[in-house]
Design goal:
It is a single chain. It contains four helices and 51 strands. It is mainly β and about 750 residues long. The protein is flat. A hairpin with a 5-residue loop joins strand 36 (about 405) and strand 37 (about 410-415). Helices cover about 10% and strands about 35% of the residues.
Length: about 750
């Protein structure tokens, strides 16, 4: 059996497009119209299918001047663009050709090639000739002879790519006494200088380009200035309003505006020679660069103008007068004739300075309790201006200046006559002092005053008789306060001066005032063995002494009742009440906090319940919620004050009380009005305060703390599963009851 199998070979996109006529070089005339095609790029792709199609593109830099048709490859000048040989003689255009894309090795690929087209711009005859080295100046001297070369002008055709020859001629101004070479542009003298009727000649010279047919085409025109000069036999000379003058004076105020002309100086400089012999430079020689003379170069004669260059340097406080020399020196003559003139400027003072303090801030120290009118500090400010502008007046202001005064002329700061400085009330003052001249110019400095503390307050206890209860193992603290402001005057040291009974079993921390039992006292039994008494009560005389000079001290009697932690019954509440029995405000504050927290929690829960019931719009059955009594658990609380060898006290809830039934009737009228009847058990009552302590019996001390019993409810059990049909039946019954109730209310 023979079968014929036809196999189609699918071409893959694996060949790049190839340019047929690139790279290439083309010449384009610069006058080519915009939008006109200049070249056709051809490329082929050997792939078949979509990969065989070719498109043409230009790189971005060339796209501003040229454009290419994406399909045909025709390159043209963009619309609105023109080639300009004078700007760019050659353009390099990069052309990119891409195929239509295709499958290669299982992926889509677009193949591309790049080539460069060189475009040479051919210059066209569209630019007139231009002169080189303008402006032109020439001179005729007294010794010149006819035929002497005066000046040579030079011009070139503006079309530098294909230039034409240039021909020179006069348009006007030569008066027939000058001639010009048509090809070289050399201007020469035709007559003797004595026949020249003018001193300056402004000659218009034309440069015309000549075509190959010897016809004049575009042309350019420039001016050649020719001056007739004589021999150098006169130096420059300065003149005033009344003739030659070598001394000029001016009185003016300091700091004139920069660029201002000193119009009071009327100076003229002149050189009677002609031409180059009358050309000279002007220079102003003097202190700094405050002034400048213009013009700097003079031909024959000029009005000299003096300008202000640096206004800040013209300061009366530095220079009462300024002296300058104005120098005129010939430039191109062998003789280099020169002359000078003196300029003296007298400056007048202005109020251009504000008073300036010797320091930006002043720091002063004064002891407290200094008498009123005591000197604090002296400030100094200087105003360099003259006359009344240099007089300085002082004043102070600021939040800290109430207790101080300043002498307006001397700058001495002192305290108010009635002022009493107390470092304990305020130890730092700062304020501003102002120095002002007659016209209101001022400057500020800041004054910092520190009141030095003196040891004028002894330490003081809150009470001269203090009562403390000490638990063995825990210290008690006493505190004295010293109203002095600074250390060491307010640093207090504590010491036990006397103990009653004499057996002192206490140590005191000298820095903190903490009183604690000596390290070997571990129990009440040890204390009773030492004192041979059952009563563990001590009276201590404690001294508080400061470290100032001189040192002050005070004493207080501290009565300390010693007890053991095992004697504190009633748990943490009992311990708190016992330890704070001498501080009733702390107990009241704790009770107020507990009551406030309870009220806030109750209000939040009530509000949330009300909003939930108000927003509820469902018909719910009348249900009875029964709370089953839960098995009570026993909780053991360990007292933190009992020693490890004592038995653990168990707080046991012995009574089991069944919770009352709670019946909730939820009747919904679909009108957002709820009629819910709730039967709650009576609210719990706040615990009563503990009973007052028993009366004190010497030799015997018993503390009775009320105990607290509590019941902790276990986690509630899961609700029983309710059948949905039973719920629907109950809902229908509830709805019938609701309708009967509505009819009864309407009748």
């Amino acid at each position: 059996v023979v079968e014929r199998v036809t196999i189609f070979v699918m071409d893959s996109n694996d060949e790049k497009p190839e340019f047929q006529n690139l790279p290439a070089i083309i010449d384009v005339l610069e006058t080519t119209e915009s939008g006109r095609s200049i070249y056709k790029v051809e490329a082929v792709d050997r792939d078949t299918g979509s990969g065989g199609s070719v498109s043409y593109h230009l790189q971005t830099p060339q796209s501003s001047l040229f454009a290419i048709d994406i399909n045909s490859g025709v390159l043209r000048i963009k619309s609105g663009q023109m080639l300009d040989y004078e700007k760019a003689k050659t353009h390099f255009v990069t052309v990119i050709t891409k195929d239509g894309g295709g499958n290669s090795n299982g992926k889509e690929h677009v193949m591309s090639s790049t080539a460069t087209l060189t475009v040479n711009v051919i210059d066209a005859q569209d630019t007139p000739p231009f002169f080189i080295g303008t402006p032109y100046f020439g001179y005729v001297y007294e010794v010149s002879v006819p035929g002497s070369e005066i000046y040579t002008v030079s011009a070139e055709d503006g079309d530098v790519g294909n230039p034409n020859p240039v021909s020179y001629s006069f348009d006007e101004g030569d008066d027939g006494v000058f001639g010009i070479n048509k090809t070289s542009g050399c201007i020469s003298l035709l007559v003797a200088p004595i026949y020249l009727k003018r001193e300056i000649f402004n000659i218009k010279v034309r440069a015309s380009e000549v075509s190959s047919e010897d016809k004049e085409m575009d042309y350019g025109v420039t001016t050649v200035v020719i001056r007739v000069v004589d021999l150098n036999n006169n130096p420059p000379t300065f003149y005033g309003e009344n003739g030659p003058q070598n001394m000029f004076e001016l009185t003016m105020y300091e700091h004139p505006p920069e660029g201002e002309i000193l119009r009071g100086l009327k100076i003229t400089v002149n050189d009677s020679d002609k031409g180059a012999n009358a050309k000279f430079n002007l220079r102003l020689i003097g202190p700094g660069r405050m002034l400048r003379a213009v013009p700097q170069t003079v031909l024959n004669e000029a009005q000299v103008t003096i300008l202000v260059e640096d206004s800040a340097a013209m300061d009366y406080e530095k220079h009462q007068f300024l002296t300058y020399k104005l120098l005129a020196v010939e430039i191109d003559t062998p003789e280099r004739f020169s002359s000078t003139a003196d300029i003296v400027i007298h400056l007048l003072d202005t109020n251009d300075n504000a008073p300036k303090f010797s320091s930006d801030y002043y720091i002063a120290r004064i002891p407290e309790n200094s008498p009123g009118g005591s000197n604090v500090v002296s400030v100094t400010a200087v105003d360099p201006d003259s006359g009344p502008w240099g007089d300085v007046k002082y004043s102070i202001y600021g939040s800290g200046a109430d207790l101080f005064l300043i002498q307006p002329t001397s700058g001495i700061i002192y305290t108010q006559p009635w002022a009493s400085l107390d470092a304990e009330v305020r130890s730092k003052y700062n304020f501003y002092v102002k120095a002002e001249d007659a016209e209101g110019k001022y400057s500020l400095a800041e004054v910092f005053v520190t009141v030095l503390d003196l040891n004028d307050h002894p330490p003081a206890f809150n009470d001269n008789f203090l009562e403390k209860t000490m638990v063995i193992g825990a210290p008690v603290k006493i505190e004295a306060i010293d109203d002095d402001a600074e250390v060491p005057n307010n640093v207090i040291e504590y010491a036990i001066m006397k103990a009653e009974p004499d057996n002192n079993i206490f140590d005191i921390d000298a820095d903190t005032g903490e009183i604690k039992l000596k390290s070997y006292i571990k129990s009440i039994a040890i204390i009773q063995n030492i004192t041979k008494k059952r009563d563990c009560s001590w009276s201590l005389v404690v001294q508080a002494r400061d470290r100032g000079q001189p040192s002050f001290s005070t004493t207080a009697v501290v009565k300390i009742d010693i007890t053991e932690a095992t004697q504190l019954k009633g748990g943490p509440l009992g311990s708190f009440l016992l330890l704070n029995r001498n501080n009733p405000l702390q107990i009241i504050g704790m009770l107020i906090g507990i009551i406030s927290l309870t009220v806030i929690v109750t209000v939040i829960i009530s509000t949330m319940t009300f909003l939930r019931n108000k927003k509820s719009n469902r018909i719910l059955p009348n249900r009875r919620v029964r709370r089953r009594p839960q098995k009570q658990h026993f909780w053991n609380f360990k007292s933190p004050f009992k020693s490890p060898d004592t038995p653990i006290e168990n707080f046991t809830v012995q009574e089991e009380q069944q919770d009352p039934e709670v019946t909730v009737e939820n009747v919904n009228y679909n009108n957002n009005i709820s009629n819910v009847v709730r039967h709650w058990p009576p609210p719990p009552c706040a615990p009563t305060l503990p009973p007052p302590p028993p009366t004190y019996v010497p030799g015997e001390r018993h503390w009775t703390i009320s105990t607290v019993s509590a019941a902790v409810a276990p986690k509630p059990k899961k609700r029983p599963v309710i059948d949905r049909r039973d719920t629907m039946n109950k809902a229908l019954v509830s709805e019938l009851k609701m309708k009967l109730e509505q009819k009864r209310m309407t009748t």
